[in-house]
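Minimal example, chain plus 6DF.
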Amino acid sequence: MSDINWKQVEEWDNKYILRTFATQEEYESVPIESTDGDYLIMPDGTRLLDFFNQLYCVNSGQRVEKINNAIKEALNRYGFVWDAYSTDYKARAAKYIIEDILGNENWPGKIRFVSTGSEAIETALFIARLYKNRPLVVTREYAYHGWTRGASSVTKLKGVRSGLVETDAQEEPVHIPGQQDGLVAIAPSPNCMRCSLGHTYGSCHDESGELACVKYTRRMVENQGKEKVAAMITEVTQGAGSVHPPAEYIPQIRKMTKELDILWIADEVLTGFGRTGEWFGYQHYGVEPDIITLAKGLSSSAIPAGAVVVNKDIADFMDNHRWETVSTYSSHPIAMAAVCANLEYMMEENLVEKAKEAGEYMKGKLLDLKAKHPSIGQVAGFGVLWIVELVKDEKLTPFIEMDRNVTHEGDPSKFPINIINEKAIEKGVLIGGFVPNTLRIGSSLNVSKEDIDKAMDALDYALSHLDAQMVLEKSEEVLT
Ligand SMILES: Cc1ncc(COP(=O)(O)O)c(/C=N/[C@H](C)c2ccccc2)c1O
């Protein structure tokens, strides 16, 4: 690969590619020449340990030989056939998910494959509204469900709602005219450390033990008119929004959706396929959804793939109708070959159990860092998906006061997550987050203990800089 002219790559990159999250002037090209396991390799040979796991989507690790060989083999048979045709790859992928992983004696009925997570969300919202014949959907603050029209209508995390931000903006981003979708109600996020309802965890439960945020959500649905509400969509732990709920939240939400006769869409795009130490995140809570959405770990991002799994009643309903929809690349045979190989690899290598073990090890290391660094206010998560809340004092005050309600205006380099990111890169580790005060940490499911140690050492080094900033700010407060 040394014959690549990376100066030429940078020139064309700057000249012809539309940017996201940075103006052209702010943009800095970061060339990646190849990848390996949990590492990105730059043209000069620098190896970066990726504790974002890209976007928490390379569950089996980079360039798995079994997956690559399956893609090559499929290329000896197919270019492309569209979804009207049956292939062994599509049928096997469906069988693996419904029968072998979820268990067809349980809730799942049928699956539809698409190409991305946002398409899976669009499909799930369509199906829910068609099945219930109702227009409204309930989402939550800080939710991230994708960028397409329907998916972004249930995405409420500021800063990733496809708006445009002037670099010196003082107000809300320019939202897309006509994008505001009145068919969505916004419930509180179960963010106990910074509760939107002003409660403190442990004293917010009512006499039945129901959390205040669940009670608020229930009241909201009743006020909207539950006969108008098709579904509630949730992540079991908010990925981009970086909120990990108390253990009782998901079971209480599930109980509420059943009592109100609305569907529960569990968005497992990010938490699915072993990321949390179970095959799917909802399985931590002893509940069963009506619909789940899948992508990322479905193929471990070797080739883009997404899917929606619906329960038996919805599957029967859909089977008795001619559904007037099509997506060119739905169940693309090469993508399905990658999905089959990825799932076989995960089952053969017992990756879900490995993620659970890695998670226990990671938790111990993060709690050690919490004991050492006053800038850590909270550690929460499971499997290879953790949050670290960064605070500037023992009162758990966030460094950036607007916290999750901030967009990308002003100077994001002052965000604690970016300070940590900058310092950790000095140790060859990519680690950071998507909301100003909260690290969102993840790796592949089969990350080695050595690499966890390397990432934690880099985080330790970076946190020391944040602690120093805390001391500096405190001394300035004392002096002023
Ligand atoms: C719960 C969930 N649902 C749907 C989608 C949409 O999937 P897509 O991108 O259309 O394939 C995503 C995407 N995550 C984005 C890329 C992310 C994740 C973590 C931090 C920052 C961003 C997601 O997390």
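The two ends are 57 Å apart (CA to CA). Residues 221 and 229 are 7 Å apart (CA to CA).
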